[in-house]
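User: My instructor asked us to take a sequence, write out its structure as tokens, and then describe one feature of it. I'm not sure where to start. Here is the sequence I was given:
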Amino acid sequence: MAHDSFPLIAEWALPSSVTLGSSVRAKGIERELRRRLSWNSRKHLTVEAGRVVLSMPEGDATAFASTRERISTAMDALPELPLLPSEVEDVLAISSRERHKWLGDGRLQSAGTRTVKLRGRARAVTFHVFDPRHIETILDGDLPTIWREEDAQVSAENRRRAAGKAALARANKVDSKVSDAGTDGTDSRSPDLDGWDAFDAERLLR
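Assistant: Let's start with the prediction itself. The structure tokens for your sequence are:
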């Protein structure tokens, strides 16, 4: 963005420890900073590569001074600014499904919830936000890779158990059919015939 026509310029460093290397996080920080400014001042603030820039016309010196002070105050709080769901997904390179799963089982810890009213929606939306230090720990330890391996092992074990249960159910079904066939009105034992005892006594079958 060119600033030649805006002689009143102020800059602040935006380290990677704040953005966690995420362009989505940087954009979220830009929205957060603009939210703290007046409507007329918001368009003059941008977040660029590694820095926050305020550029205003020379005739707005008074507004520039007050806006710069607001931004300076807000910059101090950025290291503790909670991450939004989309920011977490970008920082950790995870899917929305993984975020929901790991949040549900406690591996990904919520820092609370936020409720916002989005344009075009009749109802407000509530979502979890996340502590930047917690996300940084997960990122540094490459925990998503470890968690994916753990989930794959659990899924494989669940599939083996399901296959075993299915095989047992099929075996029980076959045994049941065989048992039913043996009780269909016919006796599989030697029939009671007249004179059989005498016939057997003569040992004619031995």
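For the description part of your assignment, you could build on this observation: The radius of gyration is 36 Å. Try explaining in your own words what that tells you about the chain.
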